[in-house]
Specification:
Jelly Rolls, alpha+beta, 13 strands, 254 residues
Amino acid sequence: MPIRATLLATAILASTLPTLAQTAPNTLTKQEAAQGWHLLFDGKTTEGWHSTHGPDFPNTGWEVKDGLLSVTEHGGEEGGNAGDILTTRKYANFELLVDFRITPGANSGIKYFVDPNYAPGHDGHGSAIGFEYQVLDDALHPDAKKGRDGDRTVASLYDMIPAAKDKPVKPVGEWNTARIVVRGTHGEHWLNGVKVVEYDRATPQFRQAVAESKFHVYPHFGEANDGYLLLQDHGFPVSFRNIKIRELPPTPPQ
């Protein structure tokens, strides 16, 4: 190869390296950092997370490997392995991004507005209570057929509002990207760049959805303006990465 061509090829390769580094999993681009994004998982440690059963991260049931935060197999029992993991602080108005990858028949969830004071179901051994962005294999897990109008399928606001029927979900084994946006009483669920759920907690329609859900037994459910974030241990192998958040003003800038 001529010297000039070699130098040109080297220059082109060098110019692409920063871009590749910026888009590596569990990192922030300069633009994201400038926009106020923060990583909730660095791909190496469990810093910022703890068990719902205590102040430490679970010793079993979860693993950090190859840049992934994963639930390990435990036969699909809700909270039956190590239990869910919570952020160490609450969030009120925010935009949250999470990549998730499921295995056949898997069930999990990304929760927000979690209140540890609510006693979990299943005689206190189930998952902590909050709003849930459902993570599910709709084709194989029976929960997809329960609830009302598909409100337990992937990307739905679990047991309250179903995700759009034409949601762009990727096949089992591939990465999907969840996006949750909360501003004041307004909330949105996105899946792979498409908005699939939208609600306002202050409306009669939303209060009716709560009343018809399994959460009607919890006084004032859905009325709090902040809460913890949670990743659910439902005993199925599920992996997460690129967990990042930025806090927002309660109303959009004018």
